[in-house]
Amino acid sequence: MALHRDIFWVGRQWAVTGAGIQAIDQRLRGVLDIEIARLWDDDLVQSRRSKPGVNAADFDKALAVARERFPQPPESNPLVAQLEALGVIEAPVISAAVPAMQLRAEGRLARFLPQWRIRG
Predict the structure, then answer these.
(1) Which of 11, 30, 46, 52 fits as disulfide partner to 58, beta carbons 3.0 to 4.6 Å?
(2) pLDDT at position 97, please?
């Protein structure tokens, strides 16, 4: 896989990009790359680090820069999740559905509706 267009740090063997940690050697075709969502998965990180031919010092530096650039998302507290499920704590309702567009021009002639323009 080609390097992501947003490059934040480049080492000898590894680069920190907008996709996570990527190997600079494109012949590997992204086999050793670590995406942002899995930067904090220690088992995956150790498996990539232990591969033969990996420059450990460069990998550790790339991991440190990537973890600084993309901080770990906060973990949800199981007690808070239970209280939200019971209704003790109100969780904000986030709707993934986009509301349908409503036209409020029924019964009116279009020429009498106010016009709007975007000024730039």
Answers:
(1) 11
(2) 64
